[in-house]
Amino acid sequence: MTTTQARTEPDHAHGADPHAGHAAPAAAAGHQGPHGYSAQKDAHLKRLRRIEGQIRGLQRMVDEDVYCIDVLTQVSAGTKALQSFALSLLEEHLRHCVAAAAEEGGAELDAKVAEATAAIGRLLRS
Prior knowledge:
By secondary structure, the chain is an all-alpha fold. 68% of the residues lie in helices and 0% in strands.
């Protein structure tokens, strides 16, 4: 596990898969993956490639000694793009994982709500 994974992946009690037993609604439509974002995976990857291009553009701007305010403007645009992507993933998590846990209720629901709350907290601090 990389340092990034250690910071971004939630800890789960006893190593259990938190998504086990939760079939993605899109799985029935032929999409692969157990996560809420699986049905939109191609669109998400396209969006991330666009954001990656923005970041590479920032590197070029610095390399070409572009005026600092112009670089900062592009940093702001890249940050907003990542935040928008994160909110989209959060919405899909709530609709898929948290909604499935709500059907089960009990400890599973409590765990998913706590997990989503922690993720929202990290987004607010970023």
